[in-house]
Each structure stands twice: as C-alpha cells, then as structure tokens.
Design a protein that fits this description.
The longest helix has 6 residues. The protein has one domain. The chain starts with 6 loop residues before the first strand and ends with a strand. The strands form 3 sheets. The chain has a two-stranded antiparallel sheet with strand order 1-2. A hairpin with a 7-residue loop joins β3 and β4. By secondary structure, it is mainly beta. 10% of the residues lie in helices and 28% in strands. The protein binds zinc ion (2 copies).
C-alpha cells in the first residue's frame, strides 16, 4: 500500500494538494528534487529553492 504523505510547497512551506492546483516538477538544475508549488505561489510566481543544489528560480 502506498501511503500518501502531505507535500509541502517548496516556496511557502504550506501543505499542497494536486487537486487544488498545485504542481510538481523536478528541479530544473539537478533533477533530483521534486519541487512543489501551490496554486498561490504559481499565481504570484514566488521563487523556490532546491535544497539539494541550492538552485533558485521562478
Ligand atoms: Zn506556496
Ligand atoms: Zn536541484
């Protein structure tokens, strides 16, 4: 059984859910970390930072 863990928005740190417009994508720089962005952070183009490679991007 796969357990569904709450995902945190990489930008604001709040819990996100894919059903509510959050998106995830691999880090554009290292590709090893999955970036999550909530709908609000997408809307405001908040920056995210990859904890693995310290890549920052919109
Ligand atoms: Zn967010
Ligand atoms: Zn990275």
């Amino acid at each position: 059984m796969s357990e569904i863990k709450p995902q945190l928005c990489t930008s604001c740190g709040k819990v996100v859910s894919p059903e509510k417009g959050a998106v995830r994508f691999p880090c554009p720089n290292c590709g090893k970390y999955t970036i999550w962005r909530c709908e609000r952070c997408r809307l405001f183009s908040n920056a995210f930072k990859c904890p693995l490679c310290n890549f920052e991007g919109p």
